[in-house]
Amino acid sequence: IAKAGHHSKLDAIVKIARSAQKKGRKFLVFSQWTGHLAIIRLALEAHGIRCGLIQGDVQGPERTRNVDAFQ
Question: What global pTM score does this model have?
């Protein structure tokens, strides 16, 4: 989690995630920058929001398990 400054995009993602969670919904975040996904994941987990991460290098049975867990 970034320690200084205001990060409106990250704040917006957390706000959307909290709203989705309250409504019992799921959502996806896509990014080609996996470093940003790691930051997002830390922010969501810091707010008690469960999340999973599926990256391009995840293959076979592990990818299937991750997708099934999301659905």
Answer: 0.72
Q: Record the tokens describing residue 24, joined without a space.
A: 């019992």
- Per the CB < 8 A criterion, the answer to whether 37 and 9 are in contact is no
Query: Is 2's pLDDT higher than 50?
Result: no
Q: Residue 48: is it exposed, middle or buried by C-beta count within 10 angstroms (0-12/13-18/19+)?
A: exposed
* Nearest-10 crossing angle of helices 34-46, 8-22: 50
Rg of the chain, C-alpha, whole Å: 13
Place of tokens 């309250």: 22
pLDDT number for residue 6: 61
